[in-house]
Amino acid sequence: MPRVKMIISDKDVPDPYYGEVDGFKVVYDLINQEIPKWLNSLKQK
Could you give the number of structural domains in the chain? Predict the structure, then answer.
């Protein structure tokens, strides 16, 4: 089992520093959507 797993592995995550003006919000929203799935996967182990 890998010790490190990407939380968002099936979507493109923009670089908030070099992307569009709202890049940080976009990245925050992506992470916010994926955290519940990630937590559920940890609970199942």
Answer: 1
Domain that includes residue 24, residue range:
1-45
Each residue's pLDDT tens digit in the chain (45 positions)? 556 667 777 788 888 888 788 889 998 999 999 899 889 988 887
Residue 5 to residues 2, 13, 29, 38, 45, Cα–Cα distance (Å): 7, 15, 19, 10, 14
| Residue 12: HSE in the Cβ half-sphere, 13 Å Cα cutoff | 4
